[in-house]
Amino acid sequence: MNLEQLRKIRERAAKELNLRSGKARVKVIVGMGTSGIAAGARDVLAAFLDEIGKRELTDIIVTQSGERGLASSEPVVEVHLEGKPTVVYGHVTPELARRIVSEHLVNGNPVTDHVIEVRE
Amino acid sequence: MRTRLDVLICAGAACLSAHSAAVRDALAREIEAHGLSDEVRIVETGCMGPCELGPVMLVYPDGAFYIHVTPEDAAEIVEEHFLKGRPVERLLWTTPEARRIAEQRKQVPFFAKQRKVVLKNCGLIDPENIEEYIATDGYAALGKVLTEMTPTAVAETIAASGLRGRGGAGFPTGKKWGFVAGAPGPEKYVVCNADEGDPGAFMDRALLEGDPHAVLEGMAIAAYAVGANHGYIYVRAEYPLAINRVEAALAAAHRMGLLGNNIMETGFSFDIEVRMGAGAFVCGEETALIASLEGHRGQPRPRPPYPAVEGLFGKPTLINNVETFGNVRHIILNGADWFRSIGTESSPGTKVFALSGKVVNTGLVEVPMGTTLRELIFEIGGGIPDGKEFKAVQTGGPSGGCIPAEYLDTPIDYESLQELGSIMGSGGMIVMDADNCMVNLARFFLEFTANESCGKCIPCRVGLPAMLEILQRITRGDGRADDIDKLERLGKTIKTASLCGLGQTAPNPVLSTLRYFRDEYEEHLVGRCRAKECTALIRYWIDPEACRGCDQCRRACPVGAIAGTPGNPPYAIDAEACVRCGTCREVCPFGAVEILDRR
User: Fold this and answer.
1) Tell me: the pLDDT tens digits for B261-303?
2) Any chain B CB within 8 A of the CB of A9?
3) B510 & B548 share domain
4) Do B215 and B329 lie in a common domain?
5) Could you count the other beta carbons within 10 Å of the beta carbon of residue B137?
6) Stretch B459-468: mean pLDDT, rounded?
7) A61 pLDDT higher than 90
8) B425 pLDDT exceeds 80?
9) CATH number of the domain that B518 lies in?
């Protein structure tokens, strides 16, 4: 191994450690209460993780929360972008999750037709 | 799919012995059962520090810190937290004073006051995964010195940083490297002293277990600086986990060409072997360690010649402690000025301490030099349990001394501790409260050093048992009027006349307790132990007013020394038959059993 190869391993391995740094530009919170799970939140969460993994985005944390009372809109997903108002999506499907990643998380344009709440 | 949660389970020796491996297995089963295997990753790490609370577990990215986790908790944690995002609050670490939920690592005072440099990776990365080490800039410092720096520049950088030996004596590390580099001869050695022998100290073990590559990298950088191609890690055989992890790390580094021949294609070669010691305390002394490495009996020899000139197999040898090597890569990467910005003028950097004894948060802590004893014991350590009063702290293990309450605001560095009659030592810190007898403490440490004396020089071999005999006599209540003077005279003589560090420091616990707690010695001479710890000087007594005749003490007494009839108080203890084990006092629900002076 030479220095260049060491650098490459570091870059690859550093992404794996990103979760533990506590630093993230974006936080995606998937509502995983009982009704959320019943409405398909597991698949939505998996779609987020898959899409983010495919695009090799390292500054996004995907996490879950419990029930928040919006049972009729489940699955519910919150997106926190640094310095921007919090955007809440309702009736999220795996397909919509992938759109949120590309349009909102990457390009910064919320998928407006599925937004159910915007909080400062 | 990308990992969503990193579950860091402490696999340090303390948590392993609290069955963290069973917790890991149970969690893995539950994660599998919930179909979360792709999203949740379990990582076994080195010691996280708060050993008292083990098995401990840290979940990222939330930073939820779980304590006392059992395999039975696994299902709930996975179902509630990993699946639904609701941390199981009853298992989270709560601060004793506020009982509030500590959600972020930085909110736990135990961590907030610390400054992790050497232990940065301990508890964060998987010590058996070299790629995780590389991800934290691992081996980048070695790459830097091999491609950009001359050996002289490396030694000069370490010298400029002001790093001092973390094994205890505090000798300037850069100076030592310079001596070995300047010693003539083509063959030289680098030795890592991992013979950690102080009772209650486990800093080196934790680093070797939690971040073994950091030590290997430090040794390789040192080898380049002094011109050595072979290294040894001398570690005690009773550290099997540390040995396993180091062996695994060595194998991984060899496989990747980061150790061995032609490292990183630069032409520099360095390999390391692990040598196990049999646990003799004296082998932490460098000349005894070298003798043991060579296959001889572990005994010291007079210096000079110093190992830098004539060491292992008669060749120039650099010996540094585990923690010292652990600092090296950070200094190379961040520079000497950065290192000097931490700690104090004469003692830059941080120091790792093993907190134990009468303190709420026992475990491993790393703080900048110059942190006061009060901050360390009361803020990070959480103070004394059960609202008791702080009495003294023993620093430096059996070679150190005790420091009383009036010096709690002393900033910790090599010089300040020495002025107080103690030493920095390797970093053991034993906290004592009013229930600890200082004479008995001195006896305990002297018993240890008298046993561990190698027998080569007379002051240590004959002097320590003589001191021990006097101390045993005093704690038995048979002390003589001139015993205190004798102890002082003997102690000073042994310190001056002994051959090596063992004898030169062994009287410290006695001399320092005599300095600060002389009145306790004097009280023992008249038959009183104020801490009520010396069993020969106390008796147990049942307060007839408080006794309710519940019969618990009589049933618990192992020697049948308590008489009485159930429901018909008071009970009474036969002082002659009583062995003063204290069981009756522990079981009495009414606090009726008291400890009195024997006479």
Assistant:
1) 999 999 999 999 999 999 899 999 999 999 999 999 999 999 9
2) yes
3) no
4) yes
5) 16
6) 97
7) no
8) yes
9) 1.20.1440.230
Cβ contact A10–B137 (<8 Å) = yes
Q: Are residues B581 and B460 in the same domain?
A: no
Residues of chain A in contact with residue B120, where contact means CB-CB under 8 angstroms, are none
The CATH number for B387's domain is: 3.10.20.600
A37: chain B residues, CB-CB within 8 Å: 83-84
Q: Output the pLDDT for position B106.
A: 45
CB atoms within 10 A of CB B332: 26
User: Which residues of chain A are within 8 Å of residue B60 when distances are taken between CB atoms?
Assistant: 19-20, 22
Asked if A80 is an interface residue toward chain B (Cβ–Cβ < 8 A), one would say: no
On whether both B281 and B373 belong to a single domain, the answer is: no
Q: Supply the pLDDT for residue B1.
A: 64
Is the CB of residue B329 less than 8 Å from the CB of residue B407? no
B475 and B586 belong to one structural domain:
no
Which chain A residues have a beta carbon less than 8 Å from that of B143? 3, 6
Here the tokens at position A95 are 């397909």
pLDDT in tens, B51-79: 888 899 988 877 788 999 999 999 999 98
The number of C-alpha atoms within 13 Å of B458 and in the hemisphere containing its C-beta is 1
Residue B91 domain-assigned?
yes
Q: Closest approach of chain B CAs to the CA of A39, in angstroms?
A: 14
| ipTM reported for the complex, 2 dp | 0.77
Helix (H, G, I), strand (E, B) or coil at B437: coil
Rounded CA-CA distance B505/B418 in Å is: 11
Instruction: Give domain status of residue B564, yes or no.
Output: yes
* Torsion angles phi and psi, residue B558, rounded to 5: -75, -15
Pairwise pLDDT comparison (B359 vs A14), residue with the higher score = B359
Whether residues B215 and B164 share a domain: the answer is yes
* Six-digit token string for B446: 């002297």
Q: Residues B566, B570, B576, B578: is their CA dihedral positive or negative?
A: positive
A-B interface: how many C-beta pairs under 8 angstroms?
A: 94
Please identify, among B393, B414, B433, the residue that sits at the C-terminal boundary of a domain.
B433
B79 interfacial to chain A (CB closer than 8 Å): no
pLDDT digits (tens, 9 = 90+) for B341-386: 999 999 999 999 999 999 988 888 999 999 999 999 998 888 999 8
Distance between CA atoms of residues B424 and B507, nearest Å: 15
pTM of the predicted protein model: 0.85
Residue A78's domain spans which residues?
Answer: 3-119
- Cβ–Cβ under 8 Å, residues B88 and B73: yes
Q: How many domains does chain B have?
A: 5
Any idea what the CATH number is for the domain that residue A7 is in?
Answer: 3.40.30.10
> Does the beta-carbon distance from A20 to B85 stay under 8 Å?
no
In terms of residue numbers, what domain contains B592? 535-597
Count of domains forming chain A: 1
